[in-house]
Amino acid sequence: MTLNYSLLIASVVRDCESHLEKVFTNIENISKRFNSVKVVFVESDSSDNTLSILEDIKTNSNLDVQIISLGKLQDTFPSRTDRISHARNVYLDIAEKENYDYLLVLDSDEISTEEMNVDDVMSCFDYEDWDMMTSNQPSGYYDLWALRHEKLMPYDCWKKVVERPSNISYNKAVYEYVNKAFFKLSKTENPVKVNSAFGGAAFIKVKGINGSRHVGHYENGIPICEWVPFCDRLENIFINPRFVNSSVLSEHIKANMMVGKS
Description:
Elements: E1 3-13, H1 20-31, E2 34-43, H2 50-60, E3 64-69, H3 80-97, E4 102-106, H4 118-121, E5 132-136, H5 157-162, H6 170-177, E6 192-194, E7 201-205, H7 227-231, E8 237-244, H8 251-261
Helix pairs in contact: 6-8
């Protein structure tokens, strides 16, 4: 079944050479379900063969692929979250100016290399009244920094670590504010309404973006996950448990757990 919608698939990339071919396989498989598709890769600061691989993908694909290289953003934006924000806002401009129906944002790292079940991905369209449907990792939901939910993650977990009391060590703060919050969502559960979420993949109704943009830091300069300010102006955001982009335990969780143990 092909949906009669136009879709922009967008990904911010940096040093992703080892993942891009598998990521693009998922992009091609999902694209088959839509009437009209454009793919945009926004690249910056790569020191590997990311750009040349993207050019090969563009040359060999039947899809409309656009590559936007922003050069060395690190010279202008020393903070990683500011660089990501700037790159993400590039594809948001395209999505709104070119009037796409939907935007699918995919990370191009290891979280998107597993071949996705397209029927499960498309289950997002079994529901109505949403502005954003985000992905799930049933072995362990990893993207806590982008998550805001009254029970699952009511605060900025890494800001809590940075601003921990002087009598609490870094490792103990990671354990208390990050590790203890990891959770699992079974594929059989209903969508979970949240204030913000990403998880490496998200469908967004372009008309619901309404000019919202990513921001990489708080007013005091402390980095914030750029996804959270973007979600502030969107309504009806959900994690769709069936929308699985990775079934294995994320390296992000494993790394944090090692910190918490020491």
